[in-house]
Amino acid sequence: SLPYSTATGGEGGEGSEGAAGLSSSESGCSGFSLAALPERRRPGGCRPRYEVVRELGAEEVRWFYREDRKTWKPFIGYDSLRIELAFRAAGRGGNADRGEGPAAAPEPVCVRGGLYEVDVANAESYPVYWNQTEKIPVMRGQWFIDGTWQPLEEEESNLIEQEHLNRFKGQQLQESFDMEVSKPVDGKEAIHSLKLSRNHVDWHSVDEVYLYSDATTSKIARTVTQKLGFSKASSSGTRLHRGYVEEATLEDKPPQTSHIVFVVHGIGQKMDQGRIIKNTAMMRDTARKIEEKYFSNLATHVEFLPVEWRSKLTLDGDTVDSITPDKVRGLRDMLNSSAMDIMYYTSPLYRDELVKGLQQELNRLYTLFCSRNPEFEEKGGKVSIVSHSLGCVITYDIMTGWNPVRLYEQLLQKEEEELEDNWMSYEEQRLLEDLYITKQRLKDIEERLHELKASAISKPPVLKFKVENFFCMGSPLAVFLALRGVRPGNSGSQDHILPRTICNRLLNIFHPTDPVAYRLEPLILKHYSNISPVQIHWYNTANPLPYEHMKPSFLNPTKEPTSVTDSESGSAVPSPTTSPVMARRHYGESITNIGKASILGAASIGKGLGGMLFSRFGRSSTATPQPLETGKDGAEGDDKKTPTVGTPPLSHSSSGFLETTVELEHRIDFELREGLVESRYWSTVTSHTAYWSSLDIALFLLTFMCKDDQEDADKSNLDTI
């Protein structure tokens, strides 16, 4: 591969096609084109027979960015080309070198899938959809370090490039055969040198360039090694290359986003305002790896956008801080910045401010995304939401429009009904009737006023988009719903807690030891407290069973003395080791399923009674330690007619705890698998924030978001066969 541009002629030239397709609208600037540039590939490509040194082409320059003071990362070819075009159109490239006047300031260039913009004039990048205090520096790379292909600092690179052109521009190089047999650099003297502030550069030939440090220690090391017979270049020199290892092409372009995911944070954002941005970046990077590995052949491209709703809220100002005692101030400040959000949300004074803050931010992001991607809605782009912790509750309330005023009105109505049943005097009855008539009249007036306002101004929807999937992670939503009076019903539909007209699919993800997470399925059907959540596949599982085909698995009995022996109960209930569907742990010991997961029903059952119930259920439901199967004879086979998803119909228990024939349309609770060497006590502390970088969760999210495309691809493959 060659670190210089080429001018070709005659038989040795390449075609001049390939890079001409970049319009001014794509590049974000005008006045410059790649039409005359040949399409070349450095790695593994053969160069023409005759070459001369000339200015670097736009495709040989590579732009870089640096985040968190780490190493420089190259922009993809499509982004780098467009930044370089804007740079040259602004007169900072070749025009400036030729002494031409500067052009107008270039427009910002969209990069990294549209998430960032580059300000070429100030050599910095910044995010489009969220605020970030620190700007991301960008740099134009012309000369690169051998091996790592990291760019030299721009100031030094410019000086070396100018010197290289002044000395070698227009010179014809040797033929490739002659260069291959030429003697190595160890035996060559420098034909040209350039002194820099802390370094100097030696040219041993046109394409053999070395950088040397002028620090005292480096000079001593060079002197010693040269006396030992080593050359200057091999002892302390760093080989430099002109032009990047891989030429930028327009084909090196990210796919169009067809599915956006809003990532909503929970409590504690005031304590660390940039945390949701970092967490979303981790989730995005993890999803990219999974996308490349498993979904590269699909049209769906998912983009993750952080929703930071907390920092813009004023709430009580500094009132809570002013009443906080000074003792253990650090701990109290941490609690004020985290757990206090829950108290704000349960306060009738501040709840609306939190809801409106998140609602406005979701709508702002969606409107901004659609304005920058006009084809998104036209092509049927979809929107999903991933919420964490308290963010799940606020998102749910926004989607459903739940308001505590409704609950208050229901309580008042209940009190009135109770009053009517009580004995009262004639005077009390008369006053109560007057009060009822007045309230009814007030209600009628309010409804008429509301109708007039509605007819004058059509009320816009709360959210400007339909939610395809609502993923809850580490969610306390079930507890909030239970405290609002939601109780299990007789239908296995998600509509019982979240109508499908509002959100197509609700999925509740949790770590088994997450102390904040609760199950949702027992709020829809009571007996699901005895059915274990679906275990999420490990990302590296070979040929995993689709989630909709996974059969239900019952929780293991607790290790308590009951009316049956351990051996009997062990043979009666499907065991973790024998179940081919879900390899489970000893759930009798798990806080997740015996306590937290049974927020209704099983939570009220004592340990002894719970053990008896499980044992009795085990004996009546199956006789072998296998998952439930279809095709059995007799009444037992009828009881165990296995559906595709959900739980099979169960024989009615004498305790009346288990319902019959009712099953969920879709499973909602999904549980991460515990690590083999994971400490349960330590994971209880860390599990609530362990979702963001999980490859298992990334695969799970993409599996459901790319489901339609995957089914279409599978169908087309079958049609082909």
UniProtKB/TrEMBL annotation:
Residues 9-18 have a biased composition (Gly residues). Residues 409-455 form a coiled coil. Residues 1-26, 553-581, 620-655 are annotated as: Disordered. It comes from the Eukaryota. The keyword ATP-binding does not apply. Residues 555-580 have a biased composition (Polar residues). One of its GO terms (molecular function) is metal ion binding. GO terms for cellular component: cytoplasm. Keywords: Coiled coil. Residues 463-707 form the DDHD domain. Pfam families: DDHD. Residues 630-642 have a biased composition (Basic and acidic residues). Belongs to the PA-PLA1 family. This is DDHD1 Phospholipase. It comes from Centropus unirufus.
